[in-house]
Design goal:
288 residues, mainly alpha, single chain, 15 helices, Endonuclease III, domain 1, two-stranded antiparallel ribbon
Length: 288
Amino acid sequence: MQLADLVSDWYRSNARDLPWRRPETTPWGVLVSEFMLQQTPVARVEPMWVEWLARWPRPSALAAAPRAEALRAWGRLGYPRRALRLHEAARAIAERHGDVVPADVETLEALPGIGSYTARAVAAFGYGRRCPVVDTNVRRVVARAVHGAGDAGPARVRADLADVDALLPADNAGAAVLSAGLMELGAVVCTARTPRCRVCPIRAVCAWVSAGRPAYTGPQRPAQAFAGTDRQVRGRLLEVLRASPDPVDRTALDAAWSDAAQRDRCLDSLLIDGLAEQLDDGRIALPA
């Protein structure tokens, strides 16, 4: 069997039961999941996704809510600017597209906060279209199975898309299944540090396994620190704002982090990013 057939057959029998994959999920639900899943583990996203879709089942519902409510509902998912971008996208969909998430990649990419990957994921997983979808997991599977390399190395956008496109079946339904299968395989079997080659459905046709699993010697991505970083401080400040139904005094934010210079710098960045706003009396609040 060809690699595409092996991956697709495996996926149909072994895919995790994630709520955004269920048949009743709308393209809006898929779009929300893609925003939430960026650099965030599935286990943290799943309960938040269920809450969001129950509260805001359509783009217009989210668009009508204050941005502050979107930020509060985002909770501790991280990278809260995603919540504001999703809110902006919802407003654009409601106003420009009759509350229906577009199906084609170019129209999706024209929406606020939606890049090439997210647009392609919505087209493939929300509408079942033949569209190469490339994330870190997919790149790793292709690098190993097709090119015999231990990892994918730096992104090569056109080449990566071409690699995946060459694997996709001609029909929309089959291509959408394979796109999801490649992503799932990289997430749960062909992982970065401890690939489970013994149970991999494509081990018989994997170029990396055939070559003896040579070590990857290319450039490494630096590990992302968190403790003590501005990202942690911004999160602490947002926690204070989310927890209060009313604007807060600076003293409440001062108590969230002891380093005054770093705290002030991070508060300024939240104001610049539109994640917080300062009122005329000096108090700080989530954006209206």
